[in-house]
Amino acid sequence: MESIVRNDLHPAFSMRGITKMFGTVLANDSVDFEVLPGEIHALLGENGSGKSTLMNVLSGIYRPDDGQIEVYGELKEFRSPGDAIDSGIGMIHQHYKLAEAMTATENIVAGMKKPPKNSGKKDDVLRTDILRYASRSPAKTQQKIIEFSSRFGIEFDPSIPAGQLSVSQKQSVEIIKVLLRGASILILDEPTAVLTPQEAKKLFSVLRKMAAQGCAIVFISHKLNEIMALCDRVTVLRKGQSIETCTVSEIDAYDLVEKMVGRKINLSINKPDPDPERRVCLDVKGLTYSDSKSVPKLDNLSFTTYYGEILGVAGLAGGGQKELCESIAGIIRPQQGDILVDNERIAGLSPRDITQKGVAMCFIPEDRLGMGLVASMGIEENILLKEYALTKGPLIRMKDATTKAEQIINELEIKTPGLKHPVRMLSGGNIQKVILGREIHLNPKLMIAAYAVRGLDIHSSYTIYNLLNEQKQKNVSVLYIGEDLDVLIDLCDRIMVLCQGKNMGIVDASSTTKEEIGQMMSGTTLEELKRGVSYV
Q1: In Å, how far from its chain's centre is CA 392?
Q2: pLDDT digits (tens, 9 = 90+) for 15-44
Q3: What angle do CA 64, 65, 66 make, to 5 degrees?
Q4: Does residue 103 come out as left (phi exceeding 0), alpha (psi in the -120 to 50 range) or beta?
Q5: SS3 of 135, please?
Q6: Is the Cα dihedral 92, 97, 98, 100 positive or negative?
Q7: 231-256 per-position pLDDT tens digit
Q8: Radius of gyration (C-alpha) of the chain in whole angstroms
Q9: Strand residues in 136-268 grouped as ranges (E)
Q10: How confident is the model at residue 394, as a pLDDT?
Q11: What is the SS3 assignment for 408?
């Protein structure tokens, strides 16, 4: 990307008075937002604050009901994502849009347009060469892509099918793809959500090089420490409105949270000591499972959990976390291995059989509505479904379910018009609160919490952390599968790291580091780290 020679007083883009409604819901309420060339600008807000809608407007996915957009001083009206791309705006989504069977090169070239003739721009000459060589000389095309990528410190093999690339390499392909389509304004939506700490550092280095060459970068993230370390300015949205734009060096994380939620919030997790007796609750032995396509998901996995502790599970997406949870809960049946709770074998039993044997297992699934709740039912009825499995005899006490539903709504501040309001009509965060509240009120001995705060705002997340610690103090054994390494370290007593279904080792949360966990997530075992071996 050539340095963009423009007056820094003129923004790369500016959005003025952007308003967008969906029915009666006001998603964006006269929002102002601008980013300068060479700037990394964070967009911060709780879930439902309007971030995604605003960026979908900028990238041409939505058309605003009111307001205007200028790109390098020129008024624009985007009728499609193609219009935004033609104006130099590219968006890197959380879920990458690559054809897995095609090579990285083929993915990059697909959709590229031929630049104007005789433009004289270095990058346009490069794009012309790539398109000319694409069908005649794949090797030359790949070499041109490697040369372009090296400007930003990006490394990947363009000859490899996208399906064989690592998550961070797929992200690199997406970045190069939008840059080679002429993007000088990049929007990155939660770009570190699926990266190890080491990969995140590499990404930050890439973004800084891009900014140094004139790119304007919008960085959407809920990780405040990343915003503080990477970004120049931050704009905070709250309830669809732009609250304030701040220079990052002049504020701290507590200021940002207060602006984001409208009040002060304590960002510390008070972690009680684990039960010193260390009585075993869950004992997993040699668990092995392959999916219907014979792809290994769990590989001879063994570990134990103790009463009165929280055992965290870290790993990249697809590392076996989902299959581990579903095996314990009886949703899938492992081909080998054993699962015991209180020394009683439960492997291979159905979820109902596990419940009827007196094992109150709390499972918070990744797919909230698909596996956690009946979408058409209200909170009260969804609680009744779980209660019925534990009830002896054919009769159920409706009054008890009503009382419990009201208690859950009050404790977790669930926003709903009423107990019978269909849960499918609640926001994602409120759906998650319903599931967690229902499971906690079963008074379990073992709780499996998979991504318990996914989709929740900061205030609700810390409410969940406190609830999990309350369960720990009640001597419940908690298995916590999470994505945020800072939270795993602050919340858990021990952390097990998974990589491709294997246990890379279990570390003490009080003495480990994000870097150590990141190396294990990438395939280095704890024993190898102790010997000084690293594959990262």
Answers
A1: 40
A2: 999 999 988 889 999 999 999 999 999 999
A3: 90
A4: beta
A5: coil
A6: positive
A7: 999 999 999 999 999 999 999 988 99
A8: 25
A9: 185-189, 216-220, 233-238, 241-247
A10: 61
A11: helix
